[in-house]
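Per your request, structure below.
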């Protein structure tokens, strides 16, 4: 939480919060509101005087988890939850609430809550879930590590595997596909992970009872909430495969199977439709008596004009036996009543009654396409919201930074005067130091915004590394002196590498200042550099408080601030934004390097190391 050191700054903060598009509030440990951006709250929730507690507007079914989330947030220092609240029209809306705990200037623990209306997103997810649950096709959701996250009822009906037998397990460890099909599945999965969506393909799959069926698999990536998952849609095409075999054997058997098929089937020969089943008649709206009177090629009027050329080209290639013909593709069809339907089309060259023909198998995927379009549009809206958030952070940071510059400059100038009293100097020093902290925070936020939007640029030149380290130590020498640290330097002489000098100065300052902050007075710090295997290696080693294994995931994470307990007996400064090491790692990565740390545990010191290739 930013401390309003001046009236002008406080006015700026209130101006920003009152014009924010998100709900902003501050609560105490009793969950009582101490601040809200009143205008937005009243526009959406109504009279705010009715709500004394953060729980007053929460849906009764969500209150328990809201209380748990708030308590955990005060304990951990951060948290996030989704709950329903009542708006001023009396309707329930969904809010995604993120919290960050802080201590006010009186030492009391408070939490800053930022809430966003995600009602539309929830509605989209519910629509998707309805289609997902009612689809006759097997739908399985897999994460990018290969673990099965969810599956619909159709999967259970088609394959016989219960959810409990699949969820949370790696599909590669399960006996789901025949040996010849496993490589095909793995190649498709690896392609999706790399960002390439494969064409639909056929494989043989085991049912739970050990029987084998042919399935047509269509994979894509969907975003649900804040997670990207691989959606695997499987269609049982055993009947289709059987139909293909029997077509070659018997017209009568083919018709029996076809007329009971759940998919639409056509046969085109000499550019005429010579067979359609009942499912196709229902799909298109045309009877066979109508179709058999059409002229050669007239069946193309069933195809949307924007897709007609594509379909005609593929059918021609199949009839000519060209190898680059695509067996499966999607197109828009025009029903007899003029409605547009999306069709998943599988067509194959066959011999029918001794002559070449095209067997077409068609599945109506209109509902699926609508769902995909809804999800696509919602993702675009979410991206727009994320862009607005980034723009807001950038604009707000610049606005806040403008009044900070004279505060820093003038307070520093006054500190150098001998005419002020000790008490005045102490006050000025507090103003100066806190203004610097706010300035550093703003710079961090701006850099994070640039990183997240890929606008964080490097300007690399040949630079002498030791001079950068000297500048860093010059800036930090007062801290080293204040804590009486023993500093050892083991630096290779005359090392020059191509880097962004300003960014590298920030990396070195972050790592060295962290060693100073987290090492008790009288501790030891050693800084080393060397050239090794074509890499420049920099390390900072200290004998400070170190890291526990459970803290690994937070070290380089954005806002990954580690709450360390039982270190009050040390003169350790644990204040920070949790952005320094995140930005440091990004800078090293942009230089083509790597960064890591080594620590044997609490109070056993830490060594941070990074390497950069020598160009």
């Amino acid at each position: 939480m930013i401390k309003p050191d001046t009236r002008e700054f406080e006015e700026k903060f209130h101006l920003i919060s009152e014009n924010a598009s998100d709900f902003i509030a501050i609560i105490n440990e009793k969950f009582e509101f101490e601040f809200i951006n009143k205008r937005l709250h009243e526009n959406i929730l109504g009279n705010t005087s009715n709500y004394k507690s953060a729980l007053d507007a929460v849906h009764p079914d969500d209150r328990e988890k809201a209380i748990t989330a708030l308590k955990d947030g005060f304990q951990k220092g951060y948290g996030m939850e989704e709950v329903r609240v009542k708006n001023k029209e009396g309707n329930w809306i969904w809010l995604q609430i993120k919290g960050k705990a802080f201590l006010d200037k009186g030492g009391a623990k408070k939490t800053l809550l930022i809430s966003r209306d995600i009602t539309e997103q929830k509605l989209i997810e519910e629509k998707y879930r309805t289609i997902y649950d009612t689809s006759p096709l097997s739908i399985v959701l897999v994460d990018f590590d290969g673990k099965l996250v969810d599956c619909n009822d159709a999967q259970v009906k088609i394959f016989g595997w219960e959810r409990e037998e699949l969820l949370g397990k790696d599909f590669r460890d399960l006996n789901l596909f025949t040996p010849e099909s496993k490589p095909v599945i793995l190649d498709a999965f690896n392609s999706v992970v790399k960002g390439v969506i494969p064409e639909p393909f056929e494989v043989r799959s085991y049912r739970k009872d050990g029987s084998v069926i042919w399935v047509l698999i269509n994979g894509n990536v969907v975003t649900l909430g804040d997670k990207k998952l691989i959606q695997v849609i499987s269609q049982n095409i055993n009947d289709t495969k059987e139909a293909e075999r029997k077509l070659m054997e018997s017209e009568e058997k083919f018709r029996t199977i076809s007329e009971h098929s759940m998919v639409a089937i056509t046969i085109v020969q000499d550019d005429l439709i010579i067979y359609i089943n009942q499912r196709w008649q229902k799909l298109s709206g045309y009877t066979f008596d109508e179709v058999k009177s059409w002229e050669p090629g007239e069946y193309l009027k069933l195809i949307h004009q924007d897709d007609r050329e594509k379909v005609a080209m593929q059918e021609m290639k199949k009839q000519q036996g060209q190898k680059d013909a695509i067996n499966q593709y999607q197109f828009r069809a025009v029903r007899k009543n003029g409605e547009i339907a999306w069709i998943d089309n599988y067509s194959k060259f066959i011999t029918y009654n001794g002559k070449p023909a095209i067997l077409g198998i068609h599945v109506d995927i209109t509902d699926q396409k609508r769902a995909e379009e809804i999800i696509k549009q919602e993702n675009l809206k979410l991206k727009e919201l994320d862009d607005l958030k980034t723009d807001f952070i950038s604009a707000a940071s610049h606005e806040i930074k403008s009044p900070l510059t004279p505060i820093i400059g003038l307070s520093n100038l006054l500190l150098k005067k001998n005419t002020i009293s000790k008490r005045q100097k102490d006050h000025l020093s507090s103003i100066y130091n806190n203004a610097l902290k706010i300035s550093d925070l703003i710079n961090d936020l701006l850099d994070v915004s640039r990183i997240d939007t890929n606008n964080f640029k490097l300007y690399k030149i040949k630079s002498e590394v030791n001079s950068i380290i000297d500048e860093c130590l010059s800036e930090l020498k007062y801290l080293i002196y204040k804590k009486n640290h023993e500093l050892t330097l083991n630096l290779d002489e005359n090392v020059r590498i191509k880097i962004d000098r300003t960014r590298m100065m920030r990396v070195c300052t972050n790592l060295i200042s962290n060693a100073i902050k987290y090492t008790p007075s009288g501790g030891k710090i050693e800084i080393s550099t060397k050239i090794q295997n074509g890499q420049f290696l920099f390390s900072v080693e200290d004998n400070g408080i170190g890291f526990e294994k459970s803290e690994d995931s937070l070290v380089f994470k954005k806002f990954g601030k580690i709450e360390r307990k039982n270190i009050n007996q040390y003169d350790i400064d644990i204040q920070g934004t949790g952005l320094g090491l995140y930005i440091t790692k990004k800078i090293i990565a942009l230089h083509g390097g790597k960064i890591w740390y080594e620590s044997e545990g609490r109070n056993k010191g830490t060594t941070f190391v990074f390497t950069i290739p020598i160009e």
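The longest strand covers residues 212-224.

Regards,
D.
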